[in-house]
Amino acid sequence: MLQAVDYQNENEMKQLLQSRSSEIDPEIIVQVTNIIEQVKSEGDQAVKKFTQQFDSVWLDDYIVSQEEIDTAVKSVDPFLMENFREAKQNIEKFHIPQKAKGFELTQEDGVYLGQRVLPLDKVGIYVPGGKAAYPSSVLMNVIPAKIAGVNDIIMVTPPDRQGQVNPVILAAAAVAGVDRIYKVGGAQAIAALAYGTKTIPKVDKIVGPGNIYVSVAKKLVFGLVDIDMIAGPSEILVIADEAVEASYAAADLLSQAEHDPLASSILIALSDEKIAAVTKEIKKQLAELPKKEIASASLKNYGYSLKVSSIEEAIEVSNRIAPEHLELLVNQPKNYLPLIKNAGSIFLGYDSCESIGDYFGGTNHVLPTNGTARFYSSLGVESFVKRSSYLHWTPEALEKHGDKIINMALSEGLQGHARAVEVRRETYE
Ligand SMILES: NC(=O)c1ccc[n+]([C@@H]2O[C@H](COP(=O)([O-])OP(=O)(O)OC[C@H]3O[C@@H](n4cnc5c(N)ncnc54)[C@H](O)[C@@H]3O)[C@@H](O)[C@H]2O)c1
Ligand SMILES: N[C@H](CO)Cc1c[nH]c[nH+]1
Ligand SMILES: [Zn+2]
């Protein structure tokens, strides 16, 4: 159920670290490139053609109307609508302080220079269709964009065979404040957002998870537009001390395993007894899960247990793995926070299960996976802004420092750069 790994054995650790990184099938790259090229040249016609081919529905008009949104909102359980609104408030509270401010420096001789922080104008949000519709992901993607001040938030999501979008997704989009919604999914949706069609505007950045066709398309259009990250299957690493209830650790490991057969769940504990108790609990709880086939496939392939001799050692191992979610189910968890270097989001203490962060706590659940927490951060307000710098110089400053600029330009053989300073200085008398 959980494969035991000896973390002091370099080969076993290496295998654990590499176990899910896989090459992309070249045939998929060719197929997605072809879809992108056709959307680029044929626009809406190609979008409709691919929607018919892959989603089995022809749509003359693929804009979601206000009426469809209103009907969806009315159809959703009022308590769930309340939950969305309260979650929104919590997500806003956490994300508002992320707003970066610009600055300006004033120097001698009337020189000033500064940096502005500007929101992106248009952002495309991909919301997966398929079996698992996550309205919580709509909130997590849209709310930071709103706080950043993005002008136009455009959501794309595949239609079902009747040409409809899941009402819960539309309701979450209404709560979050999406500006427009289109019924299109897959690589054709990404291409439409990157190049624009008569119906869909070209955006500056595309965010949101999706299947392999969506991920490959995002990689291929990166550069023409920005993208957030390639969010892979979910991961959780639980560090359990001797005091934690085995049922807590087991439930939390299963909570991510139920997402995907490729999800990864790792338990690090201080004794064989604790590992055995958690494993026993996993078996018990698994039997009661509706998604038991997915969870057990995930645990079979990517479920691991490691025994260490201290919490500090557990954190060292976790830093090497750089998990998407790290739970510290230990006494006095905050004492260990300074030791954690690589983790997408950290959950501190026995009562802080990861699902709080998935839905309601306020932190973002769009997080780096597959070891990329070493260098990527979670989605946030900063994902939806850009920085722009400015500078003002005066004749006094150029008189004083012009020689240095000329000298540096000439050292690079760039006469033209030097000249731009010289022509000005020649006019100062
Ligand atoms: N990290 C997260 O927060 C998070 C949240 C939700 C979902 N996900 C992931 O997103 C993915 C959702 O996948 P999905 O398939 O259910 O929905 P999706 O919306 O990503 O993909 C559906 C689209 O794929 C396209 N497609 C399907 N088969 C194709 C084919 N053979 N060739 C070309 N295009 C094809 C279709 O156009 C269809 O509209 C899953 O991998 C899931 O784990 C991640
Ligand atoms: N845990 C997922 C990200 O890894 C996000 C999610 C959405 N709904 C439930 N969970
Ligand atoms: Zn989750």
UniProtKB/TrEMBL annotation:
User: Into which EC class is this enzyme placed?
Assistant: oxidoreductase
Which residues take part in binding Zn(2+)? 256, 259, 358, 417
Which one Pfam family would you cite for this protein?
Histidinol_dh
Print the keywords alphabetically.
Answer: Amino-acid biosynthesis, Histidine biosynthesis, Metal-binding, NAD, Oxidoreductase, Zinc
Q: Which residues form the active site?
A: 324 (proton acceptor), 325 (proton acceptor)
| Cofactor(s) needed for function | Zn(2+)
User: Catalyzes what?
Assistant: L-histidinol + 2 NAD(+) + H2O = L-histidine + 2 NADH + 3 H(+)
SUPFAM superfamilies this protein is in?
ALDH-like
Which EC number(s) does UniProt give? 1.1.1.23
Q: Which Gene3D superfamilies match?
A: 1.20.5.1300, Nitrogenase molybdenum iron protein domain
One Gene Ontology term from the biological process aspect of the record: L-histidine biosynthetic process
- Indicate which residues the UniProt annotation says bind NAD(+): 126, 188, 211
Q: Write down how the cofactor binds this protein.
A: Binds 1 zinc ion per subunit.
One MF term in the entry's GO annotations: NAD binding
Q: Report the pathway entry.
A: Amino-acid biosynthesis; L-histidine biosynthesis; L-histidine from 5-phospho-alpha-D-ribose 1-diphosphate: step 9/9
What the entry lists under InterPro entries is as follows: Ald_DH/histidinol_DH, Histidinol_DH_CS, Histidinol_DH_monofunct, Hstdl_DH
Family, according to the entry, reads as follows: Belongs to the histidinol dehydrogenase family.
Provide the function of this protein: Catalyzes the sequential NAD-dependent oxidations of L-histidinol to L-histidinaldehyde and then to L-histidine.
> What name does this protein carry?
Histidinol dehydrogenase
Q: Which gene encodes it?
A: hisD
